[in-house]
Amino acid sequence: MLVTTLEDLEALYGPSSDAARVKETDRIVPEYRVLIEASPFLALATRGPDGLDCSPRGDGPGFARVADDRTLLLPDRRGNNRIDSLRNILHDPRVALLFLIPGVGETLRVNGRAAISADASLLESFAVDGKPPRTVLVIRVEAVFFQCSRAIVRSDLWNPERHVARSSLPSAGQILAACSRNRIDGSDYDRALPERVRATLY
User: Cα separation of 20 and 161, whole Å?
Assistant: First the structure.
């Protein structure tokens, strides 16, 4: 049976608790600011003309800067230049962010609207080793709330005994070789990757 109406969905799940409702704010309260400033990683969700995208973002804790209680600043560090998220934002400014903090079960969710800034002074304020990002997302916050720890607890995400050996999975080069039908030499790619990542981190 497919659930196709809001009434059927709400009948299956029942009402949310008072705690689940009051935790949502329309601004970054001091307690939420502490969580943002402790986070070195987030997932950024966007929507474009061809569908949805979710992209990882990471740097030192607090890399997503709280400018004020309604504004987040997110530098766009070096990547593969697909710029999927940025293309989507030009089409639809709505964004969603999910912050993770290593070792902590709760996550933080932020919804808002983003604009892409190339202001030189703003970029320079995010420089690392003299290298500024090419753009910074200026996110107008519309909703902020924490997510309880159940998903992290169920996944046992932070348990080092559950870490997966990278060697047990296909390497980046193997994936590229398969997807390109060996047009890309996977072995060469894997050999060069560690140094390329180090040299182009910022």
Answer: 32
